[in-house]
Amino acid sequence: MDLHSHEFQSRARTALHDTSLQQALDQARDGFVAKRAAQVAELSEFEALREAAAQLKDHILEHLDDYLERYETAVNAAGGHVHWARDDAEARRIILDICARVDARTVTKGKSMVSEEIGLNEALIEAGLKVVETDLGEYIIQLAGEAPSHIIAPAVHKTREQVADLFEAAHGGPRRTEISDLVDAARQALRGRYFEADVGITGGNFLIAETGSSLIVTNEGNGDLTQTLARVHIVTAGIERVVPTLHDATLFLRLLARSATGQETETYTTVSTGPRRLDDLDGPEEYHVVLVDNGRSRMLAGPFRAMLRCIRCGACMNHCPVYGAIGGHAYGWVYPGPMGSVLTPLIKGLDLAYDLPNACTLNGRCASVCPVKIPLPDLLRQLRHAQFTQAITPRRQRGALAAWRVVATRPWLYHALERVVARILARLGARTGRLRRVPGAHGWTLGRDLPTPAARTFLECWHHEREKS
User: Fold this and answer.
1) Disulfide check for 204: which of 237, 316, 322, 407 has CB 3.0–4.6 Å away?
2) How many angstroms separate the Cα of 282 from the Cα of each of 101, 275, 404, 458?
């Protein structure tokens, strides 16, 4: 996907006029929000869990080097192998080398956002490997030749009719539109692929330092089949996903499903530790973990450390009015929504992803629902400030901000202009109660009318009431 800044606005405009996308987003948004709210209401200690999770994450990040070393030692003791990747290119090379060494032909994948982050699928296909996505959403977008548009619901931008068209083209037979029929069709198509796979690649929701285990959560069981039936299991995860103990992981699990899909818990929670042992009935012959940095160390050492608390639940984007209006593809990379608007500039560059921190109303809904209390609006403001101080902000916008600073730091001037502008706009919109066009505010009125402001400012009304009393 093209990350050049000017493309965001173009993609956003296209998304706003895409009828099918708007239909899909409308259906998904209400479900995510309502289900989460119901689960939170039933768990009286939810806010206490959020605070405990945020504090635990901060502790882990403060001692991340120690916990990563403990994790590597435990993985080695269990017969596995840990590989350290400084960036996406090194991560791809490590995985391709493993596949080449075991003479792999087919690779199955359970959903892993890190594999999307490092561009793994393209590299595997270019190397001649057959890649099969086994998560239902990922399978749908693989058939469509598209990227995920959501971190937990990759195909949320697709309507049921669009999925039916894709399955009819891929599987043949009669066109089926019932959800149960579509799920069954995917299950039948994928069943044999698990047994053909030489390598199974999954993500890791949490990495347990105490035991060297990787933990994944799914609702389809595809992760279990991916990692147990292939000869080689590769886990891809960011370095921040480590937690001290399995008990610590349960704290995050109590928050993850409730925040992500509005479930009390996921259908499957699977813990894997090393390769198959002599008395195991199944499991891989080799177990590898690729720990990816890719800019995370820079975040750890700087003012954006709190972003590394993220447990990838997607609650921030489910509640974001901007994401809800344009979907995930408009953001141009793997991570959309508020969390992507912070992560993408930090990983890919403030200049390439210039629009993302600025495409936010700073309404705060994302921070209020984040299960680990990431102050996303504060981080977005910091990114805007960094863009300004590094002269990345366009000259015209810098001039506007400089003018605003002159006004905002002089209360007498601010209130004088406020009174003048309010009276002019009130007069222009007196007949209809709204303004379809406002000089200098074309970007706002292009998609909506501006309600006519009151003729008197709040302060004028307040002073007037004080004088009356």
Assistant:
1) 237
2) 22, 10, 66, 70
Phi, psi angles (nearest 5°) of residue 93: -60, -40
Cα separation of 26 and 125, whole Å? 34
Model confidence pLDDT, tens digit, residues 107-147? 999 988 999 999 999 999 999 999 999 999 999 999 999 99
pLDDT class of 2 with cuts at 50, 70, 90: low
Provide the edge-to-edge strand list for the sheet that holds 286-292.
Answer: 81-85, 286-292, 232-238, 199-202, 106-109, 130-133
- Measured distance CA(62)–CA(69) in Å, rounded: 14
Q: Does 1 score more than 80 pLDDT?
A: no
Given the structure tokens 């799914």, which residue do they identify?
Answer: 218
Q: Looking at the domain 80-297, which fold is it?
A: Rossmann fold (3.40.50)
Q: Do residues 52 and 45 make contact, with C-beta atoms less than 8 angstroms apart?
A: no
Two tokens at 6? 């000017």
Contact predicate 261/152, CB 8 Å? yes
Give the burial class of 172: count Cβ atoms within 10 A of its Cβ; 0-12 exposed, 13-18 middle, 19 or more buried: exposed
Burial 44-55 (b: 16+ CB within 10 A, else e): eebeebbebbbe
What is d(CA 359, CA 77) in angstroms, rounded to the nearest whole number? 47
pLDDT, residue 429, reads: 79
Average pLDDT over residues 402-415: 92
**Strand blocks (E) in 191-292:** 199-202, 206-208, 213-218, 232-238, 242-243, 268-272, 286-292
* Mean local confidence (pLDDT), 58-75: 98
Instruction: Pick the closest to residue 78 from 293, 291, 292, 283 (CA basis).
Output: 283
> Residue 277 is encoded by which pair of tokens?
């042992």
Residue 4: per-residue pLDDT = 57
Mean pLDDT is lowest, of 217-226, 313-322, 452-461, for 452-461
Q: What pLDDT, on the 0 to 100 scale, is given for residue 48?
A: 98
Residue 419 has pLDDT above 80, yes or no: yes
List, by residue range, all CATH 3.40.50 domains of the chain.
80-297
Tokens (6 digits) for 327: 């979907």
Residue 294: strand, helix, or coil: coil
Close Cβ partners of 461 (under 8 Å, ≥ 6 residues apart): 454
Residue 441 tokens read as: 């505010």
Q: Reduce the DSSP state of residue 151 to 3 states and report it.
A: coil
Whole-angstrom Cα distance, residue 70 to residue 64? 10
What is the structure's pLDDT at 3? Answer: 61
Token pair, residue 254, equals 């109590």
**Model confidence pLDDT, tens digit, residues 191-208:** 999 999 999 999 999 999
